[in-house]
Amino acid sequence: MDEELPVLWLHFEEEILKCRERPDCPPCVRKAFLKDIMMKSSSRVVEEREFDSMLHFYHDSGVVILPEELIGPKTHSSEIDDLVVINPQYLVNVMTCLHDISDHLDVDREHCNQWKKLQEEGITDIRLLEHLWKEFDSPATELVGILEASGMLCPISALAEVEDGVMQDESESFESEISKFIVPFHLKEKCLRGKWEKLCRKSWTALAFATQIKS
Length: 215
Fold this sequence. Notes:
The chain has helices at residues 4-21, 31-42, 48-60, 78-81, 88-99, 101-104, 112-121, 126-132, 140-150, 158-163, 170-179, 192-199, 207-212, and strands spanning 28-30, 83-85, 123-125, 154-155, 180-182.
């Protein structure tokens, strides 16, 4: 067993690298997908505990990214917790796309107001994110969940926004809670910190703001 385990783990890394090269393999996959590939290629039963240990080892090694292990608040979504980013560079590209937005965004009439709001207030919504990430091979909602887990997006609480004096249509209140986000590295003034902390879900602390608000 002592000799077999390292070989199996190395084989697991090889399978991950093969998945990266497959055009039909998405950059973010379910854990069960990787486990199934592993069991088929190794012709042996891979116990859940052993598989979980391999995933965390390669997460710590930078080969994959487990959203459940990122620094942000723990997500309440089991779907996001079940994801594995098999190519970390993909997530870097997603983050860079959001960070360097002014360098690549073709602002049309439809997204002009959303772009202005992001520039001036550090707020975005799911529609602008869908526009920004339209070339990526993952749903925007999936990428939002990963970036929320990493501290790159902060979901806004609809209730807190109403309390802050921003009136909303009743039919929009629920949608706002899940579709509006603060982008900490687009906040230009530290004086906005207190206001936006009020709008964040209670599960968030000052973590995102302490290190990412622009000086």
